[in-house]
Every structure is written in structure tokens, then in C-alpha cells.
Write a structure and sequence with these properties.
Blueprint: H1 6-22, H2 25-33, H3 42-50, H4 68-82, H5 88-102, H6 105-116, E1 122-125, E2 140-144, E3 147-158, E4 165-171, E5 182-188, E6 194-200, E7 206-217, E8 219-221, H7 228-263, E9 265-266, E10 269-270, H8 275-304, H9 310-335, H10 346-358, H11 363-374
Parallel strand pairs: 1-4
Antiparallel strand pairs: 2-3, 3-7, 4-5, 5-8, 6-7, 9-10
């Protein structure tokens, strides 16, 4: 396993302390039960800025800490442990990556410091169907005078309902399924022709359906027709972040289950004393350690060679989907019938795991992507 240095250990420990205090699972319940208009706490988001997380993937020249993808993953893992809701993934990870790697100097100076200061939320609009398929982008970008006009729809846009700006994957040439001809446009979320519908998922998190009707677009990231590589960079950063979050969801589910096995008694002794349950717990522990190694490996690769990270990121996301599914299923089963009730937090972990499994590609998507990269 990749060893963490002292700085990263301090980051992980401070993240755990901060999120346990400021965003426990009860905070997600509050957001859900009060039908909060944003779906996350603005105070928490500003607190993340004070912790330096909003600039974790932004260079120091633009106000960030440039702590890298390993640091990002450690924060995401702790968010998974408390089910913390925030625009971190959409803005500080994916949007920041797209702007840093593909933005013009003017775009960088405008948006990267704003992200780092938690003064801007930027959503990435990619998918259009029920499943993650970036190359199947069909939303049209047609030249009209000095600007492109965007027409089409996007679904599952994370934090789209609160975004100040949206990075939109659009097709300037070719047909859906072609990787060539995809462009990324940065548009104002309140621009004429944009209509946004908030969608609250089973995990009480937010995404949006967005319609574009002849929306003016002039700010292209990375040039027109050549945006797929840049899009993959941003998505891979997001996929690594989701994998780390799933590691946190699975790890916390495991820890809570082990604690329950030590407390719950049957036949005069803790049920954790039964060998069958010990074997299942030991198996899950091993799977968690393997997943941790894969997530860290993916993030190290993203830091060193982001253009070559696709296959290892897919391996991590595939494994994260499988391990999280196992962890929450085992937790609910070992907790018994009450594990399915809303009063017990384990059900909330299962819901988040299920939604995050689909986010940015499910296990099947990434197994296929990995197999293709290895030419199986």
C-alpha cells in the first residue's frame, strides 16, 4: 500500500475532526427533513474554504493549495464517512480540473480564485441519458455569428441547481458516439435559454435536469472540437473522488457494523463471537484495504500522469462500487430488520452508496473501460 506522509496524515485527521464536528450524519437528516433550498450548508462550504479544501487542486498562483489528488481523495473519504453534502466534487474537483488544464489565462484568473474562495459553484453537464456515456454527447453547438448556440438537454448535473456557471459538453461536429467533435463551453447558469429543474435523489443529494434553447456560448475550454481529452481529465478526477467517497461510505459502514457485533448479544454472548460473522467481517476488511490501495494508486497516477490515468481510475471506481455494495449490504443484514428503518443511519449509507455507484459510471461501465484499455 502507498504510505501517507506526515502532511497527508495531518490532512486526513483534520478532515475527520472537522466533518465529524460540522457535518455529522444528523446534518444530512436536517437538510433532508427541512427541505433545504440548496441541499447543502453554505456555512459548511465556507468552512471547507477555511480548511483549504476548495483550492486543493488549484495552483498557488490562482489562490489554491495545490495539494494534489491524493489529498483530494483523503478529504472525499472523510466526507463519505459522515455523508457530508457539499459542492466539493462538482466545483473543487471537476470544474477546477477542467479550468486549470483547459482554461485560458483570462478564464483561470476569473474562476479559479473564485472557486478557491468558495465564491463560485460550477457544475459539469455531461450526461444526457440514463447511464454515464460522455462520448454519446448529442447536445448541439451550432455556429451563429460570433458565438455558438447550444440546444439540447443534460441530466444528472451534480449541483446544477445552485451553480453560478456550467461547463457544458456539446457537439460541434460528428455524431453521438464520436470522441472527436466534443467541445466544452463555460456558460452563465442564468443565461437566457437555460431552464433548470432540481432533482433530489434517493440519497437526499441534489442534481439537475437542464434544458438549453439557443444559449449563447463563446467561452470554449481547450478549443472547439477537441474537448474530449480535457473532459476525460475532469471526469477522471471526479471518478477518483467518488471512489474515495465510496471507500469512506464502506469504511464507516464496516466500523459501525463491527461495533454493533460487539454490542448485540444472542445466547448470552456478543454475536461477533460467532465465527461465521467473523469470517464475513474479515473478508470485508480485506476488500476495504484492497480498495484503499487502488484509490491511492489512481490518485498518485493522476498527480504524475493525468492523461494516462484512465485505466487505473476505472479499476478504482469498479472496485469501489463492488466493495461499497458489499459493505452496506452486510451492514443492513447484520443489523437485522432495524437496519432497514430510517431511525438507523445504516440505511442512509446504503442509499448514498447506491447513488454514488451510478455517478460518473457504474461498475459495468468501468469494467468495460478497463478491459478496452488492456485490450482484453
Amino acid at each position: 500500500m502507498i504510505a501517507l506522509d506526515e502532511d497527508r496524515i495531518m490532512l486526513r485527521d483534520s478532515a475527520r475532526e472537522f466533518l465529524t464536528d460540522k457535518s455529522p450524519v444528523s446534518e444530512l437528516r436536517r437538510l433532508r427533513d427541512t427541505k433545504d433550498k440548496d441541499g447543502f450548508s453554505r456555512d459548511l462550504w465556507r468552512g471547507m474554504k477555511d480548511m483549504g479544501w476548495t483550492g486543493i487542486l488549484i495552483d498557488e498562483a490562482n489562490g489554491g493549495s495545490d495539494f494534489g489528488h491524493v489529498g483530494m481523495a483523503l478529504v472525499c473519504e472523510e466526507m463519505g464517512r459522515t455523508l457530508a453534502a457539499s459542492p466539493f466534487l462538482s466545483t473543487a474537483v471537476m470544474a477546477a480540473t477542467a479550468l486549470r488544464r483547459g482554461g485560458s489565462e483570462e478564464q483561470k484568473k476569473k474562476w479559479l480564485p473564485a472557486i478557491s474562495e468558495a465564491k463560485a459553484i460550477i457544475a459539469l453537464a455531461v450526461d444526457e441519458g440514463r447511464k454515464h456515456a460522455p462520448e454519446k454527447t448529442a447536445l448541439k453547438a451550432e455556429m451563429a455569428g460570433n458565438a455558438f448556440k447550444l440546444t439540447g438537454e443534460k441530466s444528472f448535473v451534480v449541483d446544477g441547481h445552485v451553480a453560478d456557471a456550467i461547463i457544458v459538453a456539446a457537439r460541434t461536429e460528428g455524431e453521438p458516439g464520436d470522441k472527436n467533435g466534443i467541445s466544452l463551453f463555460l456558460v452563465d447558469a442564468k443565461a437566457p435559454g437555460i431552464s433548470i429543474e432540481r432533482v433530489i435523489g434517493v440519497d437526499s443529494r441534489n442534481n439537475a435536469r437542464i434544458k438549453f434553447e439557443n444559449v449563447n456560448a463563446v467561452d470554449a475550454l481547450g478549443g472547439t472540437g477537441k474537448g474530449f481529452g480535457l473532459l476525460e481529465n475532469a471526469l477522471n478526477a471526479g471518478r477518483a473522488g467518488v471512489s474515495a467517497e465510496l471507500l469512506g461510505v464502506a469504511g464507516e459502514s464496516f466500523d459501525r457494523t463491527v461495533a454493533f457485533l460487539k454490542e448485540r448479544k444472542q445466547f448470552g454472548k456478543p454475536i461477533g463471537a460467532f465465527q461465521a460473522l467473523q469470517h464475513r467481517a474479515a473478508h470485508l476488511f480485506g476488500e476495504l484495504e484492497l480498495l484503499r490501495s487502488l484509490v491511492l494508486s489512481a490518485c498518485v497516477t493522476l498527480d504524475k500522469s493525468p492523461d494516462a490515468a484512465g485505466s487505473v481510475v476505472s479499476a478504482a471506481k469498479y472496485k469501489a462500487c463492488e466493495v461499497a455494495k458489499l459493505a452496506v449490504s452486510e451492514a443492513v443484514q447484520m443489523f437485522g430488520g432495524m437496519g432497514m428503518t430510517d431511525e438507523v443511519d445504516i440505511g442512509l449509507f446504503m442509499k448514498r452508496a447506491r447513488a454514488a455507484q451510478e455517478l460518473l459510471g457504474d461498475a459495468y461501465f468501468h469494467a468495460d473501460r478497463y478491459a478496452q484499455s488492456q485490450k482484453f
